[in-house]
């Protein structure tokens, strides 16, 4: 080969790009979990989306992420338009996701396994383009709430359509719509009872005018939003559309977009309602109970998203280690790197398995009260634990790539910036732990379902049995807020173990020894000898 005057060296010992890859075919833990949770009927659709997510969607994501959304409060003539402009790639991502069921499969193709399949789609999507997961999950989660209000049937039906229409038009002119949610105000987000936005009744059939603000209001180009506001009888839930039923623009003012740590393809705004038209959902004063049904679904997607993020970070780290050599050996052959990768693989597989188990419970909840009770409490436990694990995990995976992991084009910095978000929104960590205490104290069926799940894993592993006995003793002593994180952490690790043990998962013993039996330290890569890390590494990729 001829050399030009600028050739100084051969490029060597650099890995090929990980993508394009089939994210479904690669992911042994995901495929096994979907089969176990009875989502297999949708395997062909998941396989198709795994290929999209690992190829075209990931390329579009680069574009959507680089070119951040822009707020346009006015048009060139000075008229208020309150619009956010997105890169065309963002709209393409949304259209691809919605047409493949990421937002609506559970409702549009309802039936056994549909929630599991949608959960798997959501997990795959998050690996490619997590910013758009925000409007996708809100659109999914709002449907059951809207269905409770006969006057809003058309909204529910259109949100359940596999059709994306990003134009700023009244709902009547669209086949499919997206939905957002507005709860958080300046004076309080976790404590939504502190909301000050006022709702004044316009007509006896549930129409109101809302005046106030929301401090965080993501995906503001959604067609409508479920918002909380104070009505005469207390905090209530409303549907607030971008356009009034008479076809005029609603009084929803976008003030500015948040300059966020990550999540760049998604717009999160601050808004004011200047007498905006809205229709009440559920009874006056029942706002929190009404919107909680939506929040249960978005919290499940936080778990799935963080599990997906960890999976992508793991795949990047393991791929790099397979191809990069140092000190005469591939990184994946270096004992200490193997310990790191094995530990990450254990964490990732436990997260994926746990999140899909909860999706399975959601699937069966309508016909099985125990599964409904399990989903209720396991969502709070999993939202706390899986989301809390993601930032440290992303950092460790990043380090596996060395300096390249700190460089934007490796993809790891984007995952790292995204990682903390799921543990903050939809109820931050402490709020999830307090929710677990509330469920245990006030909804005894949730504690019973949790215990039944844990007992189903007993008698197989001595470490598991010992920690389960400890947890039972702790629960018997009573619940206190100070100890809530410690309790929920223990319950999360036990739940992950119980699910793996019952499934006969080959990593179950390693999970129990390392996470319950003191077989690891505080950082990744500290698995003690005797733990079968090779089995965990062997399951990272199917090939
Ligand atoms: C990028 C982004 C987008 C968002 N999009 C939306 C959106 O679309 N719609 C929406 O409604 N909200 C949205 N949020 C807001 C988010 O849900 C809130 O920020 C979150 O619920 C926390 O509320 P807060 O910020 O008011 O914090 P606070 O409620 O003030 O909480 C601060 C801290 O105190 C802790 N805490 C609160 N109460 C207790 C207690 N009793 N005991 C112990 N600890 C406690 C919390 O866990 C938290 O760690 C978004 C947030 C972000 C970052």
Query: How much helix, percentage-wise, in residues?
Result: 40-55%
**Distinct helical segment count:** 20
Q: Main beta sheet: strand number and arrangement?
A: 7 strands, mixed
User: So what's the overall shape?
Assistant: globular
Name the poorly predicted regions.
none
Give the amount of beta strand, in percent: 5-15%
Q: What is the terminal separation in angstroms?
A: 34 Å
Derived from helix and strand composition plus strand pairing, the structural class reads alpha+beta
Number of strands: 11
As a whole number of angstroms, the C-alpha radius of gyration is: 24 Å
What ligand molecules are bound, each kind once? Answer: flavin-adenine dinucleotide
Overall average pLDDT: 97
Give the tags.
single chain, 543 residues, alpha+beta, 7-stranded mixed β-sheet, two-stranded antiparallel sheet, 51% helix, 13% strand, globular, binds flavin-adenine dinucleotide
Task: Please summarize what this structure is.
With 543 residues, the protein is of the alpha+beta class. It contains 20 helices and 11 strands.
Give an account of the 3D structure:
With 543 residues, the chain is α+β, with helices and mostly antiparallel strands. Helices cover 51% and strands 13% of the residues. The protein is built from 20 helices and eleven strands. The strands form three sheets. Strands 3, 4, 5, 6, 7, 8 and 9 form a seven-stranded mixed β-sheet that branches. Strand 4 (198-203) and strand 5 form a beta hairpin. It is globular. The mean pLDDT is 97.
